Amino acid sequence: MRFTLVVLPVLVVFATCAALLVGSTISPADTLAAIFGGGDELTRGVLVELRVPRVLVGLGVGAALGLAGTILQAVLRNPLASPEVTGVGSGAVLGAVAGTVFLGIADQPEALTIAAVLGGVLGGASLWLIAAKAEPLRLAVLGVLVSAVLAGASLVLLTARPQLAGAAARWLVGSLSGRTWEHWHGLWPWLLVVVLAVVVLAPALDLLAVDDDHARTVGLAVVPWRLSALGAAVLATAAAVAAAGTVSFVGLLAPHAVRKVLGAEHRWLLPASALAGAACVAGADFVAQALTALVPSSGSQRIGIPTGAVTALLGAVVLVVVARRASRAQVEGGAR
Amino acid sequence: MTKSVLVATLTLLVVSVAALCLGTPLVGVNRLPAAFAGATDLEHAVVVLLRAPRLVLGLLVGAALAVAGLLLQESLRNPLAVPELLGVSSGAAVLVGVCVVWALPFPGAPLVPALIGAVVGGLITLLAARRAVGPAAVLLIGVAVNAAMQALLLTAVSLSDSREQGVLFRYLLGSLTGTTWESVAVSAPGLIALLPLALLCVPLLGVLRLGDETASALGVRADRARLIVLVVACALVAIAVAPSGPIAWVGFLGPHLARRLRPNADPRIWLAWSALFGALLVVVADLAARTVLAPVELPVGGLTALVAIVLAALVIRRRGELG
C-alpha cells in the first residue's frame, strides 16, 4: 500500500513533465531550457500561456473523473459504474451543448459548468428512474442505453447550429486542445468543492459500499449521505466535461486499477484514484500530442488527435476485460 | 393476415407519396405525374433528382438494417443484438468515414471498405466476447468496441482539414442528406441480391433457436450455421452503411415491432415484417428529419435512435430479458 502511494505521485509528475515537454511549435529541448529560465520570449510564452494551463486542466479533469468514478462505484455497489455508463457524463455533455446552442455560453466556463451539472443530474436521474434495482451488468447496459439517447440528443442539437460543427468533435470525444488559463480558473473552484466534499464523505462511502442495513446498524443516515455522495460525483463529472468534453473511460479505469492494488478502503482509494486519473489524462495527452506530431501536418485548422480518443481506445480494452470477468463472477456466484 | 398486408401496403404507399410531396417546395399529389414526366423543370428536379433517390435509398436501407438486426438477434439469441452494439455498423462507418474524410483512393469504395470494416468490427466484438457469459456482458463488450470505433472516427475527423459537419453526422448517426441516384446505384444491387439470401437463412435460424445442443443433435453444425447467418447480416449492414451511415437502431426497432405484432409467427413472416417496418421507419423518420426544423436538416439517425432506445430500455426493464 505504501508503495502505491509513492508510485502514483511519481507517475503523475512523470506524466506532467512528459505532457509539458511534448507539443507543437516548440521542441522538447527548447521547452526544457525555458522551464529553467532560459529560452526566448516566444518559447516562454508558449510554455506559460499554452502548455501549463493545458496540463493543469488535464490533471484537474483526470482527478475529477477518478473521484467521480470511485464514488459512483461505491454508492451504486457496481464495479462497472462510471460517468460514461451511468448517463451522468453524456447528460453533462447534453447540458453543456444545450447551453452553448440556446444560451450562447460557450466562452463562460462558470455558466457552462452549471449547465453541465444540470444535465448530469438529469442523466443520472433518468437512469435511476429506469434501473434503480438492477444488478451490476444490467445496470451497466441500461446506463449505456441512456447514454446513447443523451449523446444522440446532443448530436441533434449540434446540427441545429452548423457553425458549431468544429466543437462537436470536442464535446463527443474530449480534447485538451486550446485549453487556457480561463478554463483552469473555471475548473479549480469546482474541483476544490469536490475534494472538500470527498474528505467528509470518505468514511461514509466505506459503509455505503457494503449495504444499507449494515450502514443503518452503525447509525448512518443512508439516504442523505448517498444523495450527497451522488451529488459530489455529478459535480465532479460536470466540471470535467465543461472543461474538456467527454474524456471517456478514465472514471472507470482509474478507480478499478487502484482498487485492485489498494483494496476497498476509501480513505486511501479516493486520493489514489484522483492521482491515477490525473496521471491517465496527462499521460494520454502526452501520447496524443506525440502522435499528432508524427502524423503529417496538412493544415492549420486541425485540432490534433483528441486526448479522449486515446483514453477511449485504452479504456475499451479494459472494459472488455472487466466485463468478461464480471460476467464469469456472476455465473459462478449464481452456481454457488 | 390479408387485411394486415393490405394495410401495410397502403401505409407504405401513403408514406412514399408523402415523402415525394412534402418539403420545400411543396409538390401537390395531383402534380406528381407531371413532375415525373418532366413538365415543369423545378418540380421535376426536386421530385425526381432529389426526393425520389432519397426515398428509394431510405426504403432499401431501412429494410436491410432491420433484416440484419433480425438475423443477428435470432442467431445470437439476444434481443438486444443490434448492429450498433456489436461493432458491425460502427466498424463499417469508421472505415468508410476515414476514406471519405481523408479522400483515400480505396479500391471499390465505398462498398469494399464498408464490408471490411463491418467484418472486422464484428470479429473484434465476437472474439473479445468469446469467453464472456450472458447477453449483458456480450453487449457491454460490444459497447466498448463501439466506443473505440467512434473515437477512431472522431480522431480522423479532427485530424483532417475538411471538418465537414455532414461527414461527421453521417458516419456517427446516419443521415440521408444529399442522396443522389449514384449513391442508390452503388448499394441497391447488393441489397436487392442479399435480401432473398437472408430469406434462405431462415431455416438455419429455426434450428439455431432450439439451442446449440439440439441443433447438433439434428445434424446441423451450429457454429457453421451461425457463421453463415452472421456473414449475411454483416454484408447487409455494410452495404446499407456505405451510402447513408449507420442509421441508428433501425436494426432493433424493425424486428422488435415484427415480433410484437406476430408473436407466434414463422421467422420468414418476421423477416418480411421486419423489412417493412424498417423501411417505413427510416422513410418516416427522414421525412420528419428534413421537414420539422426546415431549413435545418436533422440527422435521421438521431430520431430513430431516440425512439428505439427508449423502447429498448422499456423492453429490458419490463421483461428482464438480460442478466
Characterization of this structure:
The mean pLDDT of chain A is 83. Chain A has one domain: Orthogonal Bundle (ABC transporter involved in vitamin B12 uptake, BtuC), CATH 1.10.3470. Chain A is 78% helix and 0% strand. Chain A is mainly alpha-helical and 336 residues long. Chain B has a single domain (2-71, 80-319), classed as Orthogonal Bundle (ABC transporter involved in vitamin B12 uptake, BtuC), CATH 1.10.3470. Chain B has 14 helices and no strands. In chain B, helix 9 packs across helix 11 (222-244). Chain B is globular, with a radius of gyration of 20 Å. The two termini of chain B are 36 Å apart. The model of chain B has no long low-confidence stretch (mean pLDDT 83). At the A-B interface, helix 6, helix 7 and helix 13 of A face helix 6, helix 7 and helix 14 of B.
List the helices and strands and how they pair.
The complex is a heterodimer of chains A (336) and B (323).
Chain A: H1 2-21, H2 28-35, H3 41-75, H4 88-103, H5 109-131, H6 136-159, H7 165-173, H8 181-208, H9 212-217, H10 222-244, H11 250-262, H12 266-294, H13 307-335
Chain B: H1 2-21, H2 32-37, H3 41-76, H4 88-101, H5 111-128, H6 135-159, H7 165-173, H8 181-200, H9 202-208, H10 212-217, H11 222-244, H12 250-261, H13 267-291, H14 300-319
Helix pairs in contact in B: 1-3, 1-13, 3-8, 3-9, 3-11, 3-12, 3-13, 4-5, 4-6, 4-7, 4-11, 5-6, 5-11, 6-7, 8-11, 9-11, 12-13, 13-14
Total separate domains of chain A: 1
Q: Mind describing the biggest β-sheet of chain A? A: none
Kindly report the average pLDDT value of chain A: 83
Number of domains of chain B: 1
CATH superfamily of chain B: ABC transporter involved in vitamin B12 uptake, BtuC
Taken in chain order, the helices and strands of chain B follow as: HHHHHHHHHHHHHH
N-to-C order of helices and strands of chain A: HHHHHHHHHHHHH
- In terms of quaternary structure, the protein is heterodimer
Number of strands of chain B: 0
Count of helices of chain B?
14
**Percent in strands of chain B:** under 5%
Terminal CA distance of chain A: 32 Å
CATH architecture of chain B: Orthogonal Bundle
- Shape, principal axes of CA atoms of chain B: globular
Question: How would you classify the helix and strand content of chain A by structural class?
Answer: mainly alpha
**CATH homologous superfamily assignment of chain A:** ABC transporter involved in vitamin B12 uptake, BtuC
